[in-house]
C-alpha cells in the first residue's frame, strides 16, 4: 500500500493525513502519525498488520497537490505497479 505525501500541499489539510496521520484529539493544531493513532493501534483498517509485514510504503515529494514530474512518477511509483 503506497502513500504519497505532497510536502507543500495546498489542498489537503493536514498534509500528514496523506499518510493517514491526523489532528490529535481535542484540538486543531498538532498532528499525530498513523502509528500514534487509535486507527492504527486498534488496527481498524488492517494498516498495522500491513506495516508489520512491510507492506506500507511512505513516499514524499516536495511539491503541491499531485505535482510531481514524470521522472519522479516513473522512478518511485511505477515499480509498485509491476
UniProtKB/TrEMBL annotation:
One of its GO terms (molecular function) is palmitoyl-(protein) hydrolase activity. Its EC number is 3.1.2.2, 3.1.2.22. The keyword Hydrolase applies. The keyword Ubl conjugation does not apply. It comes from the Eukaryota. One of its GO terms (cellular component) is lysosome. It catalyses: S-hexadecanoyl-L-cysteinyl-[protein] + H2O = L-cysteinyl-[protein] + hexadecanoate + H(+); hexadecanoyl-CoA + H2O = hexadecanoate + CoA + H(+); S-hexadecanoyl-N-acetylcysteine methyl ester + H2O = N-acetylcysteine methyl ester + hexadecanoate + H(+); S-hexadecanoyl-N-acetylcysteamine + H2O = N-acetylcysteamine + hexadecanoate + H(+). InterPro entries: AB_hydrolase_fold, Palm_thioest. Keywords: Disulfide bond, Glycoprotein, Hydrolase, Signal. Pfam families: Palm_thioest. GO terms for biological process: receptor-mediated endocytosis. Belongs to the palmitoyl-protein thioesterase family. This is Palmitoyl-protein thioesterase 1. It comes from Conger conger (Conger eel). The lineage of its organism: Eukaryota, Metazoa, Chordata, Craniata, Vertebrata.
Amino acid at each position: 500500500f503506497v502513500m504519497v505525501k505532497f510536502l507543500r500541499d495546498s489542498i489537503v489539510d493536514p498534509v500528514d493525513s496523506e499518510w493517514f496521520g491526523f489532528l490529535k484529539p481535542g484540538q486543531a493544531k498538532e498532528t499525530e502519525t498513523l502509528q500514534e493513532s487509535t486507527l492504527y493501534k486498534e488496527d481498524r483498517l488492517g494498516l498495522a498488520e500491513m506495516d508489520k509485514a512491510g507492506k506500507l510504503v511512505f513516499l514524499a515529494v516536495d511539491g503541491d497537490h499531485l505535482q510531481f514530474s514524470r521522472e519522479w512518477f516513473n522512478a518511485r511509483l511505477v515499480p509498485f505497479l509491476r
